[in-house]
Amino acid sequence: MITLKNIEKVYRTSSIETLALNNINLDIKKGEFVSIMGPSGCGKSTLLNVMGLLDEPSKGSVQLDGQPVKQYKDKELARLRNQQIGFIFQSFHLINDLSVLDNVEIPLLYRATNGRPRRDNAQEALEKVGLSNRMKHFPSQLSGGQKQRVAIARAIVGNPNIILADEPTGNLDSAMGNEIMNILQDLNNDGATIVMVTHDEQMAKRTHRLIRLFDGTQVL
Q1: InterPro entries, per this entry (predicted)?
Q2: What is the span of the domain harbouring residue 54?
């Protein structure tokens, strides 16, 4: 599904060079639920961005379904992200001026999906996360857990094969965090491949496999 070979990521400024990822080799198989852990600043989010084709590695190769992504142009990469990958962010990234339903529809707008099917798919995604009664609300009217469920609905509305979640329970209390994990596990049981960055050992134990990073290096 996702294969990383000898991945290195270096950030450079005029005065400093920072090695964010160092010789990362990973193979995420179809249907896996994998967690990534490590101290703050160890490269977890950078690794997730490389997997999600948001950030290009300085060295090494990324393969999606056996195909090297380096061969694709920017428009093709954008299409791959839109059609195959769903992103869940810790800070939700919802648009406050749009309703819950409109927020969830956004990925389908980039696919030029027609109005009625787009709305039907967004409503179905919200039903999956238990928010069918909040479709007309705005983000400011929701709790943190509800906002995260909207973010999950937006991530899954296009039926992606891969879901990348960056600290999806990080801003939530333990009860709501467990609810979010239950939703992610249900999505995984339905066939989604999930990679999740987390600081929570208990959440990580609920996934199939744990990857640890330290100072940008994979801990074996």
Answers
A1: AAA+_ATPase (IPR003593), ABC_transporter-like_ATP-bd (IPR003439), ABC_transporter-like_CS (IPR017871), MacB-like_ATP-bd (IPR017911), P-loop_NTPase (IPR027417)
A2: 2-219
Length of the chain: 220
Is 176 a residue whose pLDDT tops 90? no
Tens of pLDDT, residue by residue over 97-133, are 999 999 999 988 887 777 888 999 999 999 999 999 9
Whether the pLDDT of residue 72 is over 80: the answer is: yes
Cα–Cα distance, 24 to 214 (Å, whole number): 11
194-204 pLDDT per residue, tens = 999 998 899 99
Q: Taking CA 192 as the corner, what is the angle to CA 183 and CA 174, rounded to the nearest 5 degrees?
A: 25
Write the CATH number for 207.
3.40.50.300
Secondary structure of 42-97 in HEC code, one letter for each residue:
CCHHHHHHHHCCCCCCCEEEEEECCEEHHHCCHHHHHHHHHHHEEEECCCCCCCCC
Closest C-alpha among 56, 53, 63, 24 to residue 213: 24
Q: Which of 162, 194, 187 is nearest to 34 (CA)?
A: 194
Return the amino acid letter for 160: P
Six-digit token string for 34:
């994998």
Mean pLDDT of the chain: 91
- Report CA-CA distances (Å) from 123 to 18, 130, 142: 44, 10, 17
Angle at 17 (CA atoms; ends 61, 77), nearest 5 degrees? 30
How far is it, in rounded angstroms, from Cα 94 to Cα 142? Answer: 11
- Cβ burial of 220 (10 Å; 0-12, 13-18, 19+) is exposed
Domain count, the chain: 1
